[in-house]
What we know:
One of its GO terms (cellular component) is cytosol. The chain is mostly helical and about 475 residues long. The protein has 4 domains: about 1-75 and about 230-315, Rossmann fold (3-Layer(aba) Sandwich); about 80-185, Glutamyl-tRNA Synthetase, domain 3; about 315-375; about 385-470, Arc Repressor Mutant, subunit A (Orthogonal Bundle), CATH 1.10.10. About 50% of the residues lie in helices and about 10% in strands. The strands form 5 sheets. It has a 3-stranded parallel beta sheet. Strands 4-5-8 form a 3-stranded antiparallel beta sheet. A two-stranded antiparallel ribbon has the order 6-7. Helix 2 links the parallel strand 2 and strand 3 (about 75). The chain is elongated and about 105 Å long. The N and C termini lie far apart (about 85 Å).
Amino acid sequence: MSKPVVTRFAPSPTGFLHIGGGRTALFNWLYAKHTGGKMLLRIEDTDRERSTEAAIDAILDGLKWLGLDWDGETVFQFARAPRHREVVEELLAAGKAYRCYCTPAELDAMREKARAEGRAPRYDGTWRDRDPSEAPAGVKPAIRIKAPLEGETVIEDLVQGRVAIPNKDLDDLVLLRSDGNPTYMLSVVVDDHDMGVTHVIRGDDHLTNAARQMIIYQGMGWDVPVMSHIPLIHGADGAKLSKRHGALGVDAYRAMGYLPEAMRNYLVRLGWAHGDDEIMSLEQMVEWFDIVDVGRSASRFDFAKLENLNGHYMRATDDETLMKIFLDTLPYLPGGEAMEVQLTPEKLEQLRLALPGLKDRAKTLVELKDGANFLMVQRPLALDEKATTILDGNARALLKDVHEVLVGVNDWTVDATEEAVKAFAESRELKLGKIAQPLRAALTGRATSPGIFDVLIVLGREESLGRIADQIS
C-alpha cells in the first residue's frame, strides 16, 4: 500500500509571498487535496540577516487570503539546526562526508584556475581523501558531502520527465559551513525527510538542486521524494517575470481589488489546464488537478485575462457576499480607509442599494470603490473632465427643465422617475441618452455610473434634486 501523499510549501521569509510562490503553494495544496493527503508549511528562515517577522506575517496572511490552509504546526527551519548538524555527524561517521580546510583564498584560486582552463568553477576535491592528521592547526573546517565521481544522477520528474545530470558536473557541496551553520541544501533534505514529505513540487529553477540533494538522500539511505519541477511564470512578453509584469506580492493583488477566488482560478491555469474549462470552482480544481498534467513550458502572466476573470467572479458573487468582501477589503484599497470613515449607516444602505449596478460595471474592487465615490462626495460636486465637457450651456438648460419635471414626481421610484423623464424626452423629441448623460454628470460628477434611474433612487429625492440644482443655479 502506497504512503499517503505529503506535500510542502517552503517559502523564505525575506519578503512578501510573491505571485509565483502563491501558484507553487496552490499546486501543492491542490495535489494534496486531490490525493486525500496533506500539505505542510515550512518557513525557511536560515538567512538570519534577511528573514523578518514582517515577511513571515505577510506570507501567512497571503496564504490565508488565497484560502490555502496547511496541516499541522508551521515548521521553522532555523530552529532545527541542531538536527541538521546531527545528520552531518552521521554522514562523517559513515565516510560519506569529510572535513575541508580550504581557505576562501584557496577556493577563489581554484575557481580562477578552472575558468582559465575552460572548466566550470567547481571545488576540486582537495581534502576529499586526505588524512585528517594533515589538518592545519586552528582552522575550522567546512563539511562536504562525497559526491559520486562517475556516472549520472537521474531524476524521474513528474513534470520534466527523466532528467539525467552527469556526476562530473556535481561537486562535493558544503553541508556545514566552517562557522557550524548548515547550508540550505542540507537543511531542505533533512526537513523534507523528517516531515515525511513524499512529493516535492517547486519551481524548475531548483532542478539542479534536486540532483545535489539526491546525493544527501542516498548518503543517508533515505527514500527520495517524488519530484515535480514546475516551469516559472513569464511576463506577457515572454521575458522572466519581473515587477513590471506583475511579480508582486499576493498582498498587492488584494490592494488592486482582485478576489481570492479569481486569483486562485487564474493561477491554476498558469501551466495547467482541464480541457477548455476557464472558470472552475475550488471543488472542481481539487477534483481535476493532477501534477502530471502540468506543462513543461513557461506560462505567461496576463493582467487583461486576470481582470476579465475577476470581473466574471464579481458579477457571479451574490450582492450580500460581495458587500462583505468589499467592506473587509476596503482598508487595503487605495483611499479605502478614507471611505471607511465616510460609511455612516445611511451611506452603507445607499451602497447596498447601488451595489447591483456598480458590480456590473467593475472588474475589480478598486473600480467598485471608485464607482461608489459618488455616494460619499459632498455638495456641490467636483466634476471630472468628461462630466465638465458634458455639462455645457445647452445641457444645463436642459437640466433646468428636467429638474422641474423631477420636482413634480412624488412617488420616488425607478419606474416613476423613468416614466417622467421618458415623457419629457418624447415631448422634446430627444433620445433618452441626451438627457441621461447630463443627469449622470450632475448626479455623480462623472460620465459613467450605474443606471441613471437607479442612481436617483439610491441618492434619494432630496439629494438628487439638490445635486441637479447645484449645476443649474
